[in-house]
Write a structure and sequence with these properties.
The chain has helices at 18-21, 28-37, 118-127, 129-155, 158-175, 189-195, 200-212, 228-234, 242-247, and strands at residues 39-40, 49-51, 59-65, 68-73, 79-85, 90-91, 104-107, 112-117, 182-184, 216-219, 222-225. The protein is an alpha+beta fold. The chain has two domains: 12-153, Jelly Rolls (Sandwich); 156-247, Winged helix-like DNA-binding domain superfamily/Winged helix DNA-binding domain (Arc Repressor Mutant, subunit A). The strands form three sheets. Strands 1-8-3-6 form a four-stranded antiparallel sheet. A four-stranded antiparallel sheet has the order 2-7-4-5. It has a three-stranded antiparallel sheet with strand order 9-11-10. Helix 6 (189-195) packs across helix 7. It is globular and about 55 Å long. The relative contact order is 0.14. The model is unreliable at 1-9 and 240-251 (pLDDT under 50).
Length: 251
């Protein structure tokens, strides 16, 4: 993954990911008040859980560096991957309704997070209307993530699923100010295949096809998009211009 724009020791007011976590509408004084309730933690190691299904909901987690995945275990004992989250994503809203987390979230690599105690965040949001709006936006993002995943599985064939996943991942990196045509994604191929409802063999076959066509090169954890226009066509999406992408709020 590309180098972060700020160090982990920076506060909300100087964080380069501020626009993604709480994008717009907060005055500098509001951001300083938000910064005062944020708890910064040591790095979470690969394989360490941020939280588990059934755990009491108390905190939101803002990812500052690294990557995590959310998943559940089915009654048959199989892993069901719900999503992958990158720097700038805020997770944990799944526990809000019942005050209990509904899924597991584990670090896929060395990861740093900011903790947002929800009781303090909620009280602060009552005093800062723009912050309250941002919390509603976070809830909307979670719903949109679920919708996008459902549409990938129900409305696209296997080739389109892989192409759309890479295209959408590229858009997410671009919205964070990173290189979006060449980046590192610390997730195993088999986990992406599982997320897309494909077998590892089918996923590998499609990747080989994309590489033969000089559209995408994906070796281990390094992804390079060689032909964005062709990728967008295969994903059944229009090619977005830079201003268009930067205006899109991360789902």
């Amino acid at each position: 993954m590309n180098e972060l724009k700020t160090t982990f020791s920076s506060g909300c007011s100087s964080c380069g990911l501020q626009r993604i976590c709480f994008p717009t509408g907060l005055m500098r004084t509001d951001i300083m008040r938000l910064d005062s309730i944020v708890e910064r933690t040591p790095k979470v190691t690969k394989g360490q859980y941020l939280y588990k299904a059934g755990q009491t909901f108390e905190t939101l987690f803002a990812i500052k560096a690294g990557a995590v995945k959310a998943f559940n275990i089915t009654q048959q004992g199989e892993e069901q991957i719900l999503g992958f989250y990158l720097p700038g994503d805020v997770i944990g809203m799944d526990g809000l309704q019942d005050l209990m987390h509904q899924c597991n979230v584990v670090a896929l690599e060395s990861t740093t997070v900011c903790l947002l105690p929800f009781d303090q965040l909620e009280r602060l949001a009552l005093q800062i209307p723009a912050l309250n709006h941002q919390l509603l936006c976070l809830m909307s993002r979670g719903l949109n993530d679920g919708r996008i995943h459902s549409e990938i599985l129900s409305k696209r064939n296997a080739d389109q699923r892989v192409a759309y996943f890479v295209w959408y991942l590229s858009r997410r990196f671009l919205s964070r100010g990173y290189k979006h045509t060449e980046f590192r994604f610390g997730v195993l191929h088999r986990e992406v295949a599982m997320f897309l409802g494909l077998t590892p063999e089918t996923f590998s076959r499609i990747l080989s096809k994309l590489m033969e066509l000089n559209i995408v090169a994906w070796r281990r954890k390094d992804i390079q998009i060689l032909d964005m226009a062709a990728l967008a066509r295969l994903a059944d999406e229009k090619v977005l211009s830079l201003p268009d992408v930067l205006d899109v709020k991360q789902a």
